[in-house]
Amino acid sequence: MDPDAKNYWRNKFQKVDADIFKIIENGIIVAASDRPKEFRARRDQIAELLFTWRPEKIGEKEVDIKFSVDGSNGETDGAGISKESKVSTIINDRDKTNHSKVSLYSFDEARALTEEIEKEDKLYQDVMKIKRTLSNSQEEPAEILLELLRRLQTMAIPVQTLKVTNIGQTVDHLRKHESRKICQLARTLVHGWMNTMDDWHNSMTAVEQRSYNYLNPYAMCEEGLPIPPLDEGAFFATPACAIEMSYVYLFYPSF
Question: What keywords does the record list, in alphabetical order (predicted)?
Fold first, then answer.
């Protein structure tokens, strides 16, 4: 972007009483909502810009200042070319080469990220479409419901999608369906998702515990023996009949 265009947009943003990053975030949301087709077509370009943009450097002027401090300003070689110019050219050429490598690598990253986002978006849309049909289970034939449940069984639905779509609560209602096959399949799906939630919750707890241990090393008593930190969880130990966290996360995603 040339300086005039950059200054034009800088003045535009400065006139808006909002943080520039909020402008970017909400601009993406509005563009995706109001012009979805064009946004989808230009999404790769936007992602590439996010990954490949680097702040502009001063360039040769910065190198000249550096060499003048070293006391070699104005020296020339036999061909009459200043040492500053030769070094600046070498640095600029090397910077262009490195920038092209970074751009190529970053472009691959951006494309991979875009493909992953599209994959997750498609999975979300598919789950929501199935959920809308299952929500009207009383008006749908058993064959359709059974087919949709089987489709859900083939999907590797991540925890975040389970929480956002709240598909677990919809499928759980089908455990009381008059069809035995639908009841069994709904029960299998819910139990599988609860196991997924359990694994996710356990992994998050393990990460938090490691962080706690790192930030709170054992205290040392006067004799020099290690004293373990106070186990705060002991005061809140849950009984065996307590509700599993997987149930809470699956059926109360906003918890």
Answer: Nucleus
CB 152 within 8 Å of CB 189:
yes
- Give the number of other Cβ atoms within 10 Å of residue 228's Cβ: 8
CATH code linked to domain 141-216+236-251 = 1.20.930
Contact, 146 vs 186, CB < 8 A?
no
The tokens for 42 are 């230009």
Residue range 157-197, pLDDT digits in tens: 988 888 888 899 999 999 999 999 999 999 999 999 988 88
User: Closest by alpha carbon to 159, among 41, 248, 46?
Assistant: 248
Q: Where are the domains of the chain?
A: 141-216+236-251
* Phi, psi torsion values for 16, nearest 5 degrees: -90, 130
Choose among 184, 144, 192, 202: nearest CA to 168: 192
HSE toward the beta carbon, residue 130, CA cutoff 13 A: 27
> In the beta sheet, which residues pair with residue 44?
none
